[in-house]
Amino acid sequence: MLASRAGVALLAAFVASIVVAQVQAIPSQPSVVELLVKWTPLLAKGFLFNLLISFFAMLVGTLAGIAGMMHVTRVGLANPYELVGGELDVIAAVVLGGACALASAAVLRDVPAAV
Fold it and tell me: Which of 22, 23, 30, 83 could bond 34 through an S-S bridge, CB–CB 3.0 to 4.6 Å?
């Protein structure tokens, strides 16, 4: 019951703020309602993009958890200090692997031109 009263009060405050803004608007500028109609689709796109980012963050977290469980099942124990000191090695492997992948793509792209 309290939530419905709060919702009604919030809606009333929103409508009152639109009325006040409409009364104070300068005639040469677009009205508040026109601005809401103009910007609502853009805000909705931003909200959908935020949902997409959240989905991928949950997906990456889930995959990391599955990878952690796979690692524990192979090693046989869960050691929180397993890769301590090896972070730079992992980062270097990712960077060099990406550089190698890009280099091979560049080489393969240039091969037909050289032949």
Answer: 30
